[in-house]
Specification:
The complex is a heterodimer of chains A (554) and B (294). By secondary structure, chain A is mainly β. Chain A contains 4 helices and 36 strands. Chain A is 8% helix and 37% strand. In chain A, the strands form 9 sheets. A 5-stranded mixed beta sheet of chain A has the order 1-30-31-32-33, with no helix packed on it. In chain A, strands 25, 26, 27, 28 and 29 form a 5-stranded antiparallel beta sheet that branches. In chain A, strand 28 and strand 29 form a beta hairpin. The longest helix of chain A is centred in the first third of the chain and has 20 residues. In chain A, 54% of the residues are buried. Chain B contains 12 helices and 6 strands. Chain B has 294 residues and is α+β, with helices and mostly antiparallel strands. In chain B, helix 2 crosses helix 6 and helix 8 crosses helix 12. The chains are: A mainly beta (554), B alpha+beta (294). Chains A and B meet through strand 27, strand 28, strand 29 and strand 33 of A and helix 4, helix 6, helix 10, helix 11 and helix 12 of B.
């Protein structure tokens, strides 16, 4: 730092000489130098490349976005406010980067000026200031290529899940493969799309795949060797608590419950929170009578052992493919006059759930969008399914459709407004049970009749809708970012990127970007400039405020 | 369970419009952003609008060749007693969920199990030839592929499965509380409608027809009015195609927009329809093929 200070002092002296020592100018220059110094202090030194594990514990980092959701809480709230409610109308393009590949559904990581993002089979590292490519890793495999959510990082290593359900470790400097381990057997129908979560020396990865009747699992591996540390299975072992919610061992061991999405973590409680997928067979429950724990559940695990601490089930005995993998968002706020450690999920089945995340105690359940499948809520806070909403050979008209009232698109919690934001969809669908006899995998399908989307701001305490911003017909798939600049970034389903006022839902800025957004926006600051990153199709867009022109500098 | 419909600002045009005439926008208009040139197809479409594709038809059902047929016969004779005639398990396990079958290539893993049996689990060794085992393997692999595709709703989904309702009750609903006759006639626009679609598509068309059914009246600051088929509407812009087929676009904050949605009544009905009403209505609409020629 002393070198920098000397350099700035020299710079200041030279400037003063050039400008003839005017005291007003000197003051201005002095102020500018201090600013320069502050900027320099925020610039990482060359020796500090890689991701310091401590950065993962930062509650509100500004110069980095080190994990899928930006931090462990899953709030997707950034304390950056350079881009704010007063200047967002000046937002302009900083750079774009095209992969010429599959649509980007990932949230980028940003660490020390480098963005890391993915599509299936591919990892990209690009310059976060200028959008220049650094390296590209490709490993073509079979398996489902539905989409990919991103990588995890620890020190100088990246962790990438694959379509054949492997976990790869890459060198963050050059993208070279360090190791490759099998998470689950792809021949049985497993694949992976999620961004792993790093907790100390645990790399925690989930898997996907509900076309076949396989058992959901979460795996923790050693960051250096890839050796398995623990596995937690969505279905308990036969005879263990929860196994009584399945009719027999065969249904239990083929019960599904994939761990599709990245979880969240509370370092103080040392609890890992994860949402689990729908049970198998899908849409038909004949072979799995019972609640089917812990499918369609929010579970709290010890990240060192994989032991279950508590669980809450948004959709008992699901018959509509409504997984509960939506981000369990963590925040500390008042509830009934008392400060509480809370967890909220806007679930795919159309209901918002508020829990105490220390104990799993249920606090609130409410609908965040129209639904026709539940007749009420039971004493545990779980929706009660109507028998007539069961998929049938002659079709059952149900809202929401299987694509869900929301889905993988990231929600956000803004501590400045105290509001929870969710991308909500009205999907009206007919569910057909098509398979006769013994059901394997999927027992039917639904058909969308009508779809539209709306962004909703919920009172976190009750789930009550505070404001509603309609986003047009169709299934909107954009995630949400809120910032301390009193801004909410998302996209409508008519190709407009939007900046809204998070307190009111009013539109402050928009841009027709020509395609749907199928990922969540993220943000970071580099050398004093805040960037907003949004992938659209195969193109990464970086927005920022206009750079000071040379004319203004003089 | 309160519903909030965004269509409340839309003016429903309920009187005397035939379904065929309502289809003023062609399939191309489903991508409104591409409508930058004069739309020459503003006239009513000649053919019925193709319905929304059925979801997730990713895996076509596999064809069963002679090997599969032989394997099926052999399986039924040698294995079906324990593993079920369709291999989904009986006294023995469900082979479609078996990791051994999942990893098998042309019998290379199944063969060991068949030849050696699994005495610990009560399965005897079976004296089958390698060819017979390869046939059985082909059958099991085909069954797994079939299982992955059997959940799709095919175009040929049998009408009988959908016809669980009461056509008389459906007719009463159509003419009464359903409000269908506000726009439709069983002997007019819907005569022979049943013959135009597969059964499963007919049900979808009945509930919420595919296509663009919105028109807009745009009043400019000058007081001038432009009316036509709605091409695009978001928070920021509105565009319509006028009666001459020309495209016009305006910023929303400079004009007044009134949208007429001919599907508003369908949308409202989706919120109210019970399963029984839906099935009764379908049973009735399905009869409308027979009305022709009477």
């Amino acid at each position: 730092m002393s070198v920098l200070r000397n350099r700035n002092a020299n710079h200041q002296a030279v400037r003063r000489q050039q400008l003839g020592g005017s005291s007003i100018l000197a003051n201005i220059i002095r102020a500018a130098s201090v600013l320069l110094l502050l900027v320099a202090m925020r610039t990482p030194s060359l020796s500090a490349q890689g991701l310091d594990p401590a950065a993962l514990l930062q509650k509100q980092a500004t110069d980095t976005w080190p994990t899928y959701n930006g931090d462990y809480s899953g709030k997707r709230f950034s304390p950056l406010d350079q881009i704010n409610v007063d200047n967002v109308n000046q937002l302009t393009l900083a750079w774009i980067y095209r992969t010429h590949g599959q649509a980007i559904k990932a949230s980028s990581l940003e660490v020390n000026g480098i963005l890391y993002f993915t599509v299936p089979d591919n990892v990209y590292a690009i310059d976060a200031r200028f959008g220049q490519p650094i390296w590209h890793f490709e490993r073509k495999v079979s398996g489902d290529h539905i989409g990919h959510r991103g990588v995890a990082m620890l020190k100088d290593k990246l962790y990438f899940t694959t379509s054949d359900a492997h976990l790869l470790c890459l060198n963050a400097k050059d993208g070279k493969l360090i190791w490759d381990v099998v998470l689950t057997d792809d021949k049985l129908g497993y694949f992976a799309t999620m961004a792993p979560l790093v907790i100390r020396d645990h790399i925690i990865a989930g898997v996907s795949g509900d076309s076949t009747d396989i058992r959901g699992v979460l795996t923790s591996v050693d960051p250096d060797t890839g050796k398995v540390q623990w596995r937690w299975y969505t279905e308990p072992d036969p005879g263990q608590p929860g196994s009584e919610t399945w009719p027999d061992t065969d249904s239990l061991l083929h019960g599904g419950g994939m761990t599709w999405m990245t979880g969240t973590y509370d370092p103080e409680l040392n609890l890992l929170y994860w949402g689990t997928g729908n049970p198998n067979p899908v849409l038909v429950g004949d072979r799995r009578l019972g609640d089917n724990l812990y499918t369609c559940s929010i579970v709290a695990l010890n990240p060192d052992t994989g032991k279950l601490q508590w669980a809450f089930q948004p959709s008992p005995h699901d018959l509509h493919d409504w997984d509960a993998v939506q981000t369990p968002v963590l925040f500390d706020e008042a509830y009934k006059g008392k400060q509480r450690k809370l967890l909220a999920q806007a679930s795919r089945n159309g209901f918002y759930f508020l829990l105490d995340r220390t104990t799993g105690e249920h606090l609130a359940t409410s609908e965040f969008i129209d639904q026709t499948w539940a007749s009420g809520v039971d004493k545990k806070g779980r929706p009660i399914a109507k028998p007539e909403a069961t998929p049938s050979p002659d079709g059952a008209l149900v809202e929401p459709g299987s694509d869900g009232a929301t889905n993988w698109m990231s929600p956000s919690f803004d501590p400045q407004t105290g509001l929870f934001y969710v991308m909500a969809r009205r999907i009206i669908s007919v569910y057909y049970r098509t398979v006769e006899g013994q059901v394997e995998g999927w027992g039917g399908r639904d058909r969308n009749l009508y779809m539209d989307s709306t962004l909703r701001a919920l009172d976190y305490r009750t789930g009550k809708i505070v404001w509603n911003h309609e986003l047009g017909e169709g299934e909107d798939t954009a995630g949400i970012l809120t910032t301390a600049g009193h801004l909410l970034f998302t996209a409508d389903h008519l190709n407009n990127l939007l900046a809204l006022d998070p307190a009111t839902g009013n539109t402050l800025w928009h841009l027709n970007v020509g395609d749907h957004v199928v990922a969540g926006p993220m943000t970071y600051e580099l050398t004093g400039r805040q960037y907003i990153i949004v992938p659209v199709g195969d193109t990464m867009y970086a927005f920022s405020l206009p750079e000071k022109t040379d004319a203004k500098k003089k | 369970m309160n519903r909030s419909s965004k269509s409340k600002s839309l003016v429903a045009l309920l009187a005397g419009t035939s379904l065929a005439l309502a289809i003023v926008a062609t399939a191309a208009a489903r991508r409104p952003q591409e409508q930058q040139k004069p739309a020459t197809a503003a006239a009513p479409a000649a053919a019925p609008n193709p319905p929304k594709p059925l979801k997730k038809q990713r895996r076509p059902p596999p064809a069963a060749d002679a090997t599969v047929e032989r394997g099926h016969t052999q399986f039924t004779a040698s294995c079906g007693f324990c593993h079920g005639a369709d291999a989904t398990g009986a006294r023995g396990p469900d082979l479609l969920r078996s990791p051994i079958v999942a990893h098998d290539v042309k019998g290379n893993m199944i063969g060991d199990v068949v030849h050696n049996g699994r005495p610990d689990k009560g399965m005897p060794a079976l004296p089958l030839t390698d060819d017979q085992i390869a046939d059985i393997a082909a059958y099991l692999h085909w069954r797994i592929a079939e299982g992955l595709s059997s959940s799709e709703v095919p175009q040929g989904y049998p009408a009988e499965k959908l016809l669980t309702g009461n056509a008389q009750a459906g007719k009463a609903f159509f003419e009464g509380p359903g409000g269908c006759t506000n726009c439709h006639s069983a002997t007019g626009d819907l005569a022979n409608v049943s013959g135009k679609y597969s059964a499963v598509d007919l049900e979808a068309q009945m509930l919420y027809p595919e296509g663009k059914f919105k028109s807009a009246k745009v009043t400019l600051a000058s007081g001038a009015v432009v009316e036509g088929a709605l091409q695009h509407l978001d928070e920021f812009s509105v565009s319509v195609t006028d009666a001459n087929g020309w495209y016009h676009a305006y910023p929303r904050n400079e004009v007044k927009v009134e949208v007429t949605d001919k599907l508003a009544a369908h949308r409202a009905l989706l919120d109210k329809l019970t399963q029984k009403q839906m099935h009764d209505l379908f049973a009735y609409v399905h009869t409308l093929e027979k009305e022709e020629g009477q």
